[in-house]
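Consider the tokenized backbone below.
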């Protein structure tokens, strides 16, 4: 099976992380990180990622919220995080952001806290006349996935099991890190579901397995 997936519709899940200048639902969004994968593929590879830098001026015109407390918080973060969020990278328009998100519209969409990342992004798109592309019943929480892994493995330090790669508070690096946990959680659920099927109906489970092979 090829490791390369070229069409976004083949992805099953997309994880979104945003960096903002406020915690309000109408926060000004500095960057958007996107990591997508297909849970049906073997291994733990993330097949698509985007790091989208947005224009503050474009959002100021729409009255997007900036919080002094959040600005002060950013002043305490690493130079690398500040550079990746506010300095480096070509600025994209909201229409470009929507165009990318729309390609993943049929996926499960995950936010570390969906009431933060997803709510703010939906508000941003609506301010510029774009509809939210995702179905609400497909909204999911990365935090819930991590809590599930804690329960499955009886390990409250499960977040330390996957080393962080990149720069913390860089949106795409955060999204990638969160995506690995989501992928792990979904595959663990699938594995346990298959174990239950085998236990309850070993003949039927074997038949299904042979069907999938063929």
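A designed sequence for it:
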């Amino acid at each position: 099976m090829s490791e390369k997936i070229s069409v976004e519709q083949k992805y099953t899940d997309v994880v979104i992380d945003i960096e903002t200048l406020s915690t309000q639902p109408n926060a000004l969004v500095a960057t958007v990180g996107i990591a997508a994968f297909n849970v049906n593929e073997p291994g733990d590879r993330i097949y698509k990622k985007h790091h989208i830098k947005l224009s503050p001026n474009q959002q100021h015109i729409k009255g997007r919220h900036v919080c002094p407390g959040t600005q002060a918080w950013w002043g305490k973060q690493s130079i690398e995080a500040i550079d990746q969020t506010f300095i480096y990278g070509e600025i994209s328009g909201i229409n470009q952001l929507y165009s990318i998100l729309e390609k993943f519209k049929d996926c499960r969409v995950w936010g570390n806290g969906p009431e933060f990342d997803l709510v703010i992004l939906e508000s941003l798109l609506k301010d510029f006349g774009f509809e939210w592309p995702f179905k609400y019943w497909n909204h999911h929480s990365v935090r819930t996935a991590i809590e599930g892994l804690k329960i499955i493995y009886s390990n409250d330090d499960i977040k330390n099991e996957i080393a962080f790669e990149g720069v913390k508070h860089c949106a795409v690096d955060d999204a990638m890190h969160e995506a690995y946990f989501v992928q792990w959680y979904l595959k663990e659920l699938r594995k346990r579901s298959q174990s239950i099927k085998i236990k309850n109906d070993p003949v039927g489970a074997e038949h299904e397995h042979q069907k999938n092979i063929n």
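The chain is about 45% helix and 15% strand.
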